[in-house]
Amino acid sequence: MPQVVILNGSPNPGSRLTGITQYVESHLSKEGISFNHIMVASLPAEDLIHARFDSPAIVEASSLVESADVVIIASPVYKASFTGVLKTFLDLLPQKGLSGKFVTPLFIGGTIAHLLSIDYALKPVLSALNAKHFGSGVYATDSQIARVDNGEFELNEELQERLNSSVAEIIEELQFRKNK
Fold first, then answer.
1. pLDDT 10s digits, 142-167
2. Count of C-beta atoms within a 10 Å radius of residue 12
3. What is the dihedral of CA 60, 66, 71, 74, to 10 degrees?
4. Distance between the two ends of the chain, CA-based, in angstroms?
5. Cα within 13 Å of Cα(86), Cβ side
6. Are residues 76 and 106 in contact, defined by beta-carbon separation less than 8 angstroms?
7. Which of 53, 80, 86, 144 is deepest in the core (most CB within 10 A)?
8. What is the reported pTM?
9. What are phi and psi of 79, to 5 degrees?
């Protein structure tokens, strides 16, 4: 069965990025697509910082990435790049850890000024991990996601359309892999 793994690099589980990943997860679920979710900030900090490749938590998270057909990498943008906690996890993946994976970035930033962080900060790191197949990334701004009273998030229509296109690409890729 095709697998999707969502790597969430936010250090804050209640951030607006959660609204994006929940939206994508909901649409994957509606299509009957199974996925795993890795909250990188919930991995043991000492294992990440001290590069403990053999840590049970790191081994488990790495094996989820290894078994995935699609890897969704979600991160807020800080200082024109993805988060440091996400980078520490990516550093622990094997040298060719993204070989053969379909990779889709989902980023959020305060303004459109960091739109190119996907291309100039993330993709070089992913290429070093042998990623060659990229879906259309989605960059959102904070203003496109509103927090509603019950702790949920409301995404504006334009962002929903771009996320729908991204999810459609993922579904198409999984179908292609299934029929190979």
1. 999 999 988 899 999 999 999 999 99
2. 11
3. 30
4. 13
5. 24
6. no
7. 86
8. 0.96
9. 50, 45
